[in-house]
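Limitations
The structure tokens in this dataset are predictions for the assembled complex, not deposited experimental models. Users should treat interface geometry with appropriate caution, especially where small molecules or nucleic acid strands are included. An illustrative entry is reproduced here so readers can see what is and is not provided.
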Amino acid sequence: MRKKAVGMPFNWIFAIIAGGFILFLAIYAAGKFIKTSEQATYTQTAASLASLIDPLETGLVSGKSYMIPLNKKSKVFFDCDERKDPPFGRQTIAFTGQTFGNEYGETGGRVSLRNKHLFVEDVIEGKKMYFFSKPLFMPFKVTDITIIVSDSDKYCFYDSPEDIQESLEGLNLKSIVFVNETDECSGIDVCFDNRRCDISVDQASGLVRKNGKNLYYTGDWVYGAIFSSPKIYECNVKRVKARFNELAKIYLDKIPILERQGCRPQTGPALRSIIGDIGGSAELGNLYNQIDELDRLNRLALEGCELYYNQNWDR
Amino acid sequence: MRLKKSQLKIQALKNLKRFLVPSSSKKAQLKIQATENHRFPELVSLNKKSQLKIQEMAFMLVAVFLFFILVGLFVISVLYVDLQDKATKSAEEKTLAAITSLADTPELSCIASKSNCVDQDKLITLLNKTVYQNFWPFSSLRVVTFSGFDKNYDEMIECTLANYPDCELFNIYDKNVRNERAVSSFVALCRKSFDNIGVTNKCEIAKIIAGTELKYQEKNEN
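Predicted assembly:
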């Protein structure tokens, strides 16, 4: 017996192929559309986060802080490049949030910051972000050390010096705990007594050991060294020095204007000698010796003839 | 006799097959004949109908495809305009946030312990510094002294090192963008002045004006 073949009309085959192609294109376009919308939202969030850093400019106060709640658990990515956008370098912020099944979505576009110095880890993850800033003097105010930590990163400070404790406790940050003998704290251990911890601060040598790297500090740079990744810290040391150089040029140009008013500032040569690049945090100690000399000369000026004022600088 | 009968039967069957069931090649021949043969118009119209159906379906599919593409383009264009709006709004927010704290930045902050105060002696040194054009997130940055409040920019006396401090407009930088929206904030503007008592701070009210580049053409623009 001969078998009868099952025939399919041509128009059916054509409809299936064309329909399949249209369906594929529609699904592909929908996927792309969702991805682009997600990226646009996250880029906008990163831009908003960048805008929120502006009010942290300290002015005359010794520190500022606030908390930003996020709708869902999110990740913020930070990067720093001292060679981009010379002379100031730049930092970037990118944002992504959790979607279905605790998976993170496509990361949004990177938003650049040139006039801020964020001392942060490379990636911060959490539902709340704590922002705080401290002014940085060299010896005039150069920038604000802006620090961002999340609620999921708890910093446990052991045997911290009083000035650091007072300064940070005043900012009322829930992510930083100063551990007493009776308290318990589990998180990132920050030790000031030469113990081996996640972050060890050697005050005698002005050194912070973190992730197997040595980060050198002087004065308030210690906050930056504790809370930022070694890469971002070293990058910001160079960026801050670049901003210092441009500010020094402004102050040098200001000297002839003060001289018009009968002032005779003696700070010019000392200021000019400090202008230049810095190799890394290891050179901060030497830089601050020159800065101390500059400040001594500025204090010698007649009343009203000082080149700069730095009442908030504790040395 | 029996053999002859059976031979006759086979012959009869063969003849039947020949006349009743034509072979496949003959069938095809018949089909071709039918298409060419105008003696069978029903068959011809049936074939044309199916061709028309295929054409109809193809046109329909192309139309549906084009429709979806047009809808997609429309959605993308709407979203793209929205995206530009959002980017502009975000830039404006950034300008607003930055301008309120601008007077406290080290480049402008005052000589003495005053908040929201711009050091005029620093400001004049900033005029020729192009490095700050990409430092702040503004398309233009100006400071207007009190005497220039009621004047247009072209009526104001622009500050230079030669005419300082007898001037009204500190044009720190201007990127000369086509569409710009400016926001302003009042600040104290202080400078060192020598008088009978000695060197003192002389302050006046001033306006710091920062521009944001608009990425889209303003709708109500004339």
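Some entries come with short summary sentences. For this one: The helical segments of chain A are 10-52, 162-169, 221-227, 230-260, 268-274, 284-299.
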